[in-house]
Design brief:
Serine Threonine Protein Phosphatase 5, Tetratricopeptide repeat; 2 domains; two-stranded antiparallel sheet; 9 helices; 9 strands
Length: 348
């Protein structure tokens, strides 16, 4: 009987010793965990509180502290990785832990505000960055350039945005490339425009050269008149009586001639010839003018423009007739004007 009691006593003493040792390890782990929290080493604190739970598995305080330390460590790690939602969720666990440390809950609240601010800063920056990326460079070149500068300034003033520097740099490179391509295209367009202007200038010179007409002078000795005619016209063989000449190409014809008045009928006047021409012309007359000693009649007949000028005195007349396609008025009209203004008559 005495032996049995002795054994029981030995067992009880052993249990008390073990319990005392367990309580000591538990308290030591809890104290080290609290010290780690003060140093903001939340991962280390979680390890100590986990050790305390091994000594006292059902301890609510150790369990609460462990959850707080673990989630604080998770929150900081998630925030550093830019996973703000996960960080905020972890902090929510810390704050809502009923048996947790109040000081840690307050710390978690402050950290949550900071992370919310970072979250909004990053979100606003991302949104602005996407807006700039979506702008059409052709239409908004200067706006994009200005926005890129603002984005770079924002990154410079916020360390949390440093990861977006590569995106902004690529956007800046795209803008610079676009600018170079645009300058290249502009230079090419300017060169083409310059070349086209030179071509047009050369064409104008060539056209002007074509329009420049050199003239030769024909003088009629018998009736004393002279006429200037384009030098590229062919002169027909003159009539044997020497009363005039005919010049022509495949479009233009000039006939200059003279004659005597008052031969068939005495008392002829300039009106005699003028009205005789009017009667003989069947086409509508476009222009006509009668003076004391000359008249002009111009008309269009079957697509051909005919211009006649007639000079009169009591013994002789001088006249010329010019005809050409009406469609070539721009080309032959100035020639007609030149001949009319330079014709020299002997009737004055």
């Amino acid at each position: 009987m005495k032996k049995q009691l002795f054994i029981q006593l030995i067992v009880s003493l052993a249990l008390l010793t073990l319990a005392a040792c367990s309580n000591h390890e538990y308290q030591k782990a809890m104290d080290q965990g609290i010290e780690s929290l003060a140093e903001k080493d939340y991962h280390k604190a979680a390890l100590y509180f986990e050790l305390a739970l091994r000594e006292q598995a059902n301890d609510e305080q150790a369990s609460a502290y462990y959850e707080q330390a673990k989630e604080m460590a998770n929150a900081i790690e998630a925030a550093n990785q830019g996973n703000f939602e996960k960080a905020i969720n972890s902090l929510s666990v810390v704050i809502n832990q009923k048996k947790g440390l109040k000081s840690l809950q307050e710390e978690a609240g402050k950290l949550e505000e900071q992370i919310q601010f970072k979250k909004e800063t990053v979100y606003n920056f991302q949104e602005k960055l996407e807006q700039v990326k979506s702008l059409n460079l052709e239409e908004n070149y200067y706006k994009v350039k200005e926005e890129i500068q603002l984005l770079e300034e924002t990154i410079y003033s916020n360390d949390i945005l440093s990861t977006y520097q590569a995106d902004v740099t690529r956007l800046k490179e795209q803008l610079e490339l676009f600018s170079k391509e645009k300058d290249k295209a502009k230079k090419k367009a300017d060169q083409m425009k310059k070349e086209e202007a030179l071509k047009q200038e050369e064409a104008k010179k060539e056209e002007a050269k074509k329009k420049q007409v050199s003239y030769q002078v024909y003088q009629n000795a018998r009736f004393g008149f002279s006429i200037q005619y384009p030098s590229d016209l062919t002169m027909a063989p003159p009539p044997t009586n020497g009363d005039g000449a005919r010049f022509y190409n495949n479009e233009l014809e000039i006939v200059a001639f003279g004659g005597h008045t008052n031969i068939i009928d005495s008392g002829e006047t300039i009106e005699t010839y003028y009205y005789q021409d009017i009667v003989n012309i069947s086409a509508p007359i476009g222009y006509q003018r009668l003076t004391d000693d000359w008249y002009v009649i111009s008309y269009n007949e079957n697509g051909t423009t005919v211009y006649k000028k007639f000079f009169f005195d009591d013994s002789t007349f001088n006249s010329f007739i010019i005809s050409y396609p009406a469609s070539k008025q721009e080309q032959y009209g100035p020639i007609t004007d030149h001949i009319a203004s330079t014709f020299i008559t002997d009737t004055y």
